Description:
By secondary structure, this protein is mainly beta. It is 8% helix and 62% strand. It starts with a strand and ends with a strand.
Amino acid sequence: MGYGNVITIDSINVADPSELKVDIEDIHAEDSGRNEKGDMIIRIVARKRKLTLKWPPLSFADGKTLTQIFASGTYHSVWYPDPVLGTWTTKTFYVGSRGANLFNSVLKVWDSIDFDLIER
């Protein structure tokens, strides 16, 4: 498992995720919607990213490092590959839902850890 090749969070090299999905979300103005003719009128006020990340089995130590990053502070600086820009970039995100699946007490690993990061 490599470190720091795919993503860093708050300048911390974390284990490379097995899955990284980048969603680009358009944020519409409150007055967006259909007019009297039924045509959709959309005024985009921002475009934000949502990163969906999943890690393969992780040791206790790697799982702890990954999850404790989000124990303090609300916003986090994330360096990641952006498909629109065609390169790595740094943006500010907050963490959404987090999950840790099926702890294996014999091997002392988490089966997987996953979470969403939503651009501020």
